[in-house]
Structure prediction request, 97 residues.
Amino acid sequence: MLHIGENVKMAITKLVLDVLKTIKGSTIVELAEKLASLPGIRTVSIKVNEVDVETLTLTVVIEGTDIDFSKVRSIVESMGGVIHSVDEVIAVSEERH
Prediction:
């Protein structure tokens, strides 16, 4: 949760990522399970767009109530992936009264 001001908090509720991942190592199932285990994440969808000799090009869709992008990036990188681009983000603000 990102605090914008004294009374406003922002939460990321959806991320669509273009990820390049090595074929060796963890599977996309293992990546999805690891991402889904993070607090604030409800669903993870991973689609293989392209298969190269050593890499997979993936679209990763993450939805939840409060997605921590830095933790998502850390997991992707620890499992042999690199976030090539962030293709969509949805964030919501919560005003406290």
Observations:
- The mean pLDDT is 92.
